Automatic annotation (TrEMBL):
Residues 216-324 form the Glutathione synthase substrate-binding domain. Gene3D superfamilies: 3.30.1490.50, 3.30.1490.80, ATP-grasp fold, B domain (3.30.470.20), Glutathione synthase, substrate-binding domain superfamily, eukaryotic (3.40.50.1760), Glutathione Synthetase, Chain A, domain 3 (1.10.1080.10). Homodimer. Pfam families: GSH_synth_ATP, GSH_synthase. The lineage of its organism: Eukaryota, Fungi, Dikarya, Basidiomycota, Agaricomycotina. This is Glutathione synthetase. Mg(2+) binds at residues 148, 150, 405. Belongs to the eukaryotic GSH synthase family. It comes from Papiliotrema laurentii. InterPro entries: Glutathione_synthase (IPR005615), Glutathione_synthase_a-hlx (IPR014042), Glutathione_synthase_C_euk (IPR014709), Glutathione_synthase_N_euk (IPR014049), GSH-S_sub-bd_sf (IPR037013), GSH_synth_subst-bd (IPR004887), PreATP-grasp_dom_sf (IPR016185). GO terms for molecular function: ATP binding; glutathione binding; glutathione synthase activity; magnesium ion binding.
């Protein structure tokens, strides 16, 4: 049934019911590793805090949830094909964006400098496509609209699986949340989330394709990371279910110790703790880092990135796949004919969907497009001129986005005109495009009103009731670029993160969102 409205939520709780739920939720979180390191952790850590949580699951229309899951393999295929299309990446990322955005410029130029020497055809993507519910406000049905598509460091899969399990437990152990809404909190309305298993299985697929049982998976991590349990769960799952060893290093450590054999191009990492043991060969390089300029503060990190890129290890993601995830690409895809070419073009490679035309259909094109909201370039094309006019005269309808990941970088509504003035005034070299060309303009998605939840911040002893907005992320796994028989393309579980409506941004890692789970409603 099409979704028009969401139920009023959550049902009322007495103070005693609320504090009982809080006790059950926090103890469950501690016992099940639904946790974070506290601010300024000691090493080794001596304490943890619960991850930011919600006490209830949040209602989400079943048909839209199912649509988002159904289209994920087509999205995986789309982004895999983008990563394999050098001309397209050169045109979109090597143009103005590389000139005005230092980070994307380094990434594109670095990739260009090594792409003819690459010895590993396979690329691995652990993706996440993010959506908000959109209320058209004309009495029409709710829709899902894509916020962005992540191709690097798609986090929170393991913690979101645990959060869904937490809500099921809370419901079961409190007689369906104290009987407050027995119809809705029926166990049949809690979808099973296997994101932890699926994402680990994706890394294991890459490891198997590499073909050496003694090789390990390398997690490239950030210094000072507090979301370590989300990463460790993947490590433990790889060890327990797949017999795969994981080692973790930061870029700066790798700069000192990573070795790539000049002949075989095998990447190996020696251990200073076991100096007599042979260095560990790396099957898969998995980045939980490398997506923000902060990960490259000394410049030497780019050399390390390129060293790893040139090795025989399978990269998750490759530099090309990271470029494919840029917001500029999302905007260009929305221009007429571009999506059609990627999904239906006769020359397109097999990426787990069969090759060329016929593997994906017009219906896939329509389904993907249905999830998009207005996107404009900020260049001097006719569309760009239209965007500038809209941004200056109707800024309340828009968000202006730079080519950044990780939250906290976007410019909203009435802040846009001033930001554009500052960009126009920024000094630039002769022949350099205007700075605004490194941005895209996006129409604001309007989440439905009237939904609340109890949100708990990690480390706090109180949950707060807030009017909320929930962002659904669907994970995907793609292994592509090699022989057709090696291709992997599947949907891989989901994340629902929920923030107070007053906040424009929604990152869990930047402390704004809570890890939630969907309660499906018809
Ligand atoms: P990042 O790469 O930093 O995560 P996003 O594009 O995901 O950038 O934007 C960050 C947050 O801003 C999102 O999680 C969402 O809460 C909000 N946001 C982004 N785009 C829109 C939009 N078009 N409408 C409403 N909110 C948006
Ligand atoms: Mg995001």
């Amino acid at each position: 049934m099409p979704s028009k409205t969401l139920p009023h939520w959550p049902p009322p709780l007495t103070a005693d019911q609320q504090s009982h739920l809080l006790l059950l939720a926090t103890t469950y979180a501690f016992a099940h590793g639904l946790t974070y390191l506290p601010p300024n952790p000691s090493f080794p850590p001596t304490s943890t805090i619960s991850a930011p949580l919600s006490l209830f699951p949040t209602p989400f229309p079943r048909d839209l949830f199912e649509l988002a899951r159904e289209i994920q393999p087509a999205y995986n295929a789309l982004y895999a094909r983008i990563a394999l299309d050098w001309d397209f990446l050169d045109k979109v990322m090597g143009g103005s964006v590389a000139k005005v955005d230092d980070f994307q410029g380094e990434l594109w130029r670095g990739w260009k400098s090594v792409r003819d020497e690459l010895v590993q055809p396979l690329q691995l993507g652990l993706f996440r496509s993010d959506y908000l519910l959109h209320d058209t406000e004309d009495g029409g049905e709710l829709q899902i609209k894509q916020v962005e598509f992540n191709t690097i460091s798609s986090s929170f899969g393991p913690l979101s699986q645990r959060s869904g399990e937490l809500h099921k437990y809370l419901s079961a152990s409190t007689q369906r949340y104290f009987g407050v809404s027995p119809q809705l909190v029926d166990p049949a309305n809690y979808p099973v989330n296997d994101a932890l298993h699926q994402l680990a299985a994706g890394l294991a697929d890459g490891w198997k394709a590499y073909g050496k049982p003694e090789a390990a998976v390398l997690f490239v991590v950030q210094d000072g990371e507090r979301n370590v349990f989300d990463q460790r769960w993947l490590e433990y799952e790889l060890y327990e279910k797949h017999g795969v060893r994981v080692i973790r290093h930061t870029f700066s450590e790798l700069g000192k110790i990573a070795q790539v054999d000049p002949q075989s191009k095998n990447l190996s990492i020696p251990s200073s703790l076991a100096p007599d043991a042979p260095p560990t060969e790396i099957a898969v390089v998995y980045y939980r880092s490398a997506y923000t300029p902060n990960d490259y503060t000394t410049g030497a990190e780019w050399q390390t990135r390129i060293l790893l890129e040139k090795s025989r290890s399978i990269k998750c993601p490759s530099m090309a796949l990271q470029l494919a995830g840029a917001k500029k690409i999302q905007q260009v895809l929305a221009e007429p004919g571009v999506l059609e070419d990627f999904l239906l073009g006769p020359e397109r490679p097999d990426v787990g969907f069969g090759a060329g035309a016929g593997s994906l259909t017009q219906r896939d094109v329509e389904n993907l497009r249905k999830t998009w909201i207005g996107l404009w370039p900020m260049d001097d094309s006719p569309l760009g001129k239209e965007a500038l006019e809209l941004a200056q005269t109707q800024s309340d309808r828009f968000v202006l986005k730079p080519q950044r990941e990780g939250g906290g970088n976007n410019i909203y509504r009435s802040d846009i005109p001033k930001a554009l003035e500052e960009l126009a005034a920024a000094p630039r070299e002769q022949g350099e495009p205007e700075k605004k060309e490194g941005y895209i303009l996006m129409e604001l998605i309007k989440p439905p009103e009237g939904v609340s939840n109890w949100l708990l911040r990690g480390g706090e002893g109180q949950a707060r009731k807030a009017d909320v907005v929930s962002e659904l992320g669907i994970y995907g796994v793609g292994l592509f670029g090699g022989k057709a028989a090696e291709n992997v393309n599947r949907q891989a579980g989901f994340l629902l993160r929920t923030k107070g409506r007053e906040s424009d941004e929604g990152g869990v890692a930047i402390g704004i969102s809570s890890i939630d789970s969907p309660l499906l409603v018809d």
